[in-house]
Design brief:
The complex is a heterodimer of chains A (about 270) and B (about 425).
Chain A lengths: L14 E12 L2 E12 L3 E5 L6 H8 L7 E6 L2 E3 L4 H7 L1 E4 L11 H5 L12 H14 L16 H13 L5 E5 L7 H16 L3 E5 L3 H7 L2 E6 L2 E6 L5 H9 L5 H10 L11
Parallel strand pairs in A: 3-8, 3-9, 6-7, 7-8
Antiparallel strand pairs in A: 1-2, 1-4, 4-5, 9-10
Chain B lengths: L27 H13 L6 H17 L6 H26 L7 H18 L4 H26 L3 H20 L4 E3 L5 H7 L5 H28 L7 H22 L7 H19 L1 H11 L1 H6 L4 H27 L1 E3 L7 H11 L12 H19 L4 H28 L4
Antiparallel strand pairs in B: 1-2
Classes of the chains: A alpha/beta (about 270), B mainly alpha (about 425).
The complex binds adenosine-5'-diphosphate and magnesium ion.
The site of adenosine-5'-diphosphate has 11 residues of chain A, from strand 2 and helix 1.
Amino acid sequence: MANAFDGGIVGRGEAVLSLRNVSKNFGAVQALTDIELDVYKGEVVALVGDNGAGKSTLVKILAGVHQPSSGTMTFDGVPVVLDGPSAALKLGIATVFQDLALCENLDVVANIYLGQELSPMALDEVSMEIRAWTLLRELSARIPSVREPIASLSGGQRQTVAIARSLLLDPKVILLDEPTAALGVAQTAEVLNLIERVRDRGLGVVMISHNMEDVRAVADRVVVLRLGKNNGVFTPDTSNQELVSAITGASDNSVSRRASRRAGTEHSAGEAHP
Amino acid sequence: MSTVSKPVASRAPLMDRADERLQDRSGIAGSVRGFIDRVRSGDLGSLPVVVGLVVIAAIFQSINPIFLSPNNLVNLLFDCSTIGVIALGIVCILMVGEIDLSVGSVSGFASALTGVLWVNHGWPVAGAILGALLVGALIGSIYAFLYNRFGMPSFVSTLAGLLAVLGLQLYILGSTGSINLPYDTALVNFGQILIMPGWVSSALVVVAGVVLLLTKMRNAARRRAAGLSARSTGAIVFQAAVITILLGLVVFYLNQARGVPWMFGLFVGLVLLMNYAFTRTRWGRILTAVGGNREAARRAGINVRMVYASAFVLCSTLAAAGGVLAAARLASSSQQAGTGDVNLNAIAAAVIGGTSLFGGRGSAYSALLGIIVIQAIASGLTLLDLSSSLRYMITGGVLAVAVIVDSLARRSRVSHGRA
Ligand SMILES: Nc1ncnc2c1ncn2[C@@H]1O[C@H](COP(=O)(O)OP(=O)(O)O)[C@@H](O)[C@H]1O
Ligand SMILES: [Mg+2]
């Protein structure tokens, strides 16, 4: 496990974001222990792990929402301390949170521009609305009106708004915590396309997903967390069996048993969904 | 897909009207239909309070025809202004989902301080007023500190403040207990007799109408130029004309008696200023955001503590301003200033006017409409020669109805997905 941190793809140049020995405890709960993570420019890192493995906690630390109990973080090779979300945003780290973190009483435009409003003393609603439409169209969003409060949108529409918002500031790193969980097939494909597009633009992307198909489709590396600890780094062509046992921590688990039961009838690689 | 920079082809759907599910709402009929839809889904705005006002006026007028006489209405506007300014501060603090229960005490203390500094210590009146406002701001920043630093609920800190500040008021007034402000001074005249000449109030109405028309037209033109939908010129002219005519009728009617008090003009000016701040500035936007979802606002990089601090400080400062106006209105600074129903009337006005107790939803106009309702009830009951006991009960009942309307509207918004 110790060798795994730069296993897979090495030599992509400098890591834009790296964590060393990062731990986080909430009272008695040790949510993260000695986490190491590198994100390179122009790569997609998939962060996988079972529920409660600490994925969201890790993303929140990268986003400046939580402060680590110990450990160091460097951004573009410079040690940084994120004392709040605005510090992360200033560095160019944008985040789509699992709970989306949208204000339901504000409309779509206001949410996309929240905290970044144009011309603070006389809000430039026209420019903000146009940019909002442009961002949403990039995602092929199906949102009838950007002047309705977020509360009137469906889960998938909200998720699209949260993703659109993360693109607003031309970030260097994008963190996506289960960005496709509420999306339909077409929208999921759009988001995966988008992830590839921003990767090709040289951004670093961290994507959390439970969907191994999506992970295989876009990830350059797969980082596994288990019970708050690193549990290996894999290439996306690693077998399902291997990934699942890294995630669950056992070679004999319900997923592999189920897979082997089905293997008798038909061989398929895409069956396992933890 | 066309990008923004390309000019929009003449027949191409507008950028924000591309979705086929959208109905056209740009013309006069569309605006009306949109309004009906909003009300149905629980986005009531100021509709309940306007309806309530009409009902109240009809009842009192049928019992006592003096009620709607221009003279009585002018007095009503004088009385509105003091507590109205305090209610405006309450709107600010309710927007972030907090409360200030000490606005009555703060206004009383500011009133006492004005008298002490001006009359007893011989300060210039402007200095005394400024001192009172600064002390108000200081009290607000103490609440903000307690809230941000110790997480003390505003309900508790301001309840403590209510007592402590009342104590300060009694202390600085000393044994005399009350200070008479000299008549025939600018401050007292402002609170008691200064009235806009008829041509001034009429001109202000016309200016308001023209400004409304021009800003809406310019906005629509900018939107059209950018390829966004805009309200039709007809709808804008119609709206501006209706508003101007209604305001003109009100002013014309008031001018049959003395006219529009300058103090009420100041109050309306503050309401308009606050409305601009709420709806057109970043501060107003993030204030609303914090009231809607504090954690989301924090994660968007907003300095949430500063937002709370600004709301607390503004609320206490406006309470102090209301206290100064009350001193001017009564020509005295007394131990009674700011006590009794001042606190609850100010809070009730904001809520009756349509600002939600749950945070993130409100408007500056709710202070204006709400205080007019409350003063109308007070004035009507006074004309009926009813005791204050009955007045309290009825105002309490109206507040209960307003909170019920707020809760029901909120439930309806949730079920219509507009919470
Ligand atoms: N704010 C918090 N306070 C206390 N415990 C927390 C908090 N956030 C997360 N945890 C705990 O940390 C662990 C990891 O949670 P999380 O990062 O959300 O997991 P994942 O996103 O991988 O499902 C869980 O045991 C959870 O209960
Ligand atoms: Mg999670």
